[in-house]
Specification:
With about 230 residues, this protein is an alpha/beta fold. Helices cover about 35% and strands about 10% of the residues. It has one domain: Rossmann fold (3-Layer(aba) Sandwich). The protein contains 8 helices and 5 strands, in the order βαβαβααβααβαα. A 5-stranded parallel beta sheet has the order 3-2-1-4-5, with helices on both faces. The termini are far apart.
Length: about 230
């Protein structure tokens, strides 16, 4: 296994944060290996967005893995649980919402870690942030730090000294508006992205779920118009 420090695995959901994170990694000169998941999410249309983003950025490879979390359930995104709508900003940050998918980032990072080890890559990028996030525990800096420590103990490459893994979270202290502004400076085309948790059959955003509300708030605060289509 050869070690190439310019290779990076980027977790790509198809939303604003992951699209911006990919742009940051690309701007830093990394060869991009994008990783997406078909995990039984009700908004699987986001994978079409991920494909568009990967193609636009000419990534080296875009891998989409099937991990059916519907069999576990416990989330409005993977089970027959109603997606919350029209919540206030105070409500968004008060409690962990039912759109939280149990252990999702831990699962996704584990696959990213495996792929990085096989490629001899030292770098994983993930678009988590703690300001405009919906209360998800696996978006916090202390979680990422703990996972990175574990990851460097968990692989053959790490034990043999061939890999020193770094998990990059370039957006972690940024608001949604700041993320969008940064993405615009990097040339991100946000019309390619998808954020809605409960889209229409043709992929239009509902404009009322937590993710849509945070997205709309971000564009408004950034002084920009959201380029995606909304229902109604």
């Amino acid at each position: 296994m050869t070690n190439n420090n310019r290779k990076a695995v980027v977790l790509l959901s198809g939303g604003i944060d992951s699209a911006t994170t990919l742009a940051v990694a690309k701007d830093l000169g990394f060869e991009i290996y994008a990783l997406s998941f078909r995990y039984g999410q009700r908004h699987a249309v986001e994978l079409k967005a991920a494909k568009r983003i990967a193609k636009k950025n000419k990534v080296v490879r875009h891998l989409i893995l099937d991990v059916d979390l519907r069999k576990i359930g416990g989330s409005a995104l993977t089970a027959d649980i109603k997606v919350p709508k029209n919540r206030s900003m105070e409500e968004l940050t008060k409690n962990i919402p039912v759109t939280y998918v149990p252990a999702r980032n831990t699962i996704f990072l584990s696959y990213a870690l495996a792929w990085a080890e096989v490629m001899g890559a030292n770098d994983i990028f993930i678009g988590v942030n703690v300001l405009d996030y919906s209360g998800y525990p696996d978006c916090r800096p202390e979680y990422i730090a703990a996972y990175e420590k574990m990851a460097n103990l968990a692989t053959k490459a790490g034990v043999e000294g061939k890999q020193k893994l770094k998990i990059h979270t370039p957006l972690i202290e940024m608001s949604k508006a700041q993320i969008i502004q940064k993405g615009m400076r990097l040339g991100v085309d946000y019309s390619l992205t998808h954020s809605c948790y409960d889209p229409s059959d043709v992929g239009e955003a509902c404009g009322k779920c937590d993710s849509c509300l945070l997205r709309l708030k971000g564009f408004q605060e950034a002084g920009l118009k959201d380029p995606v289509k909304y229902k109604g």
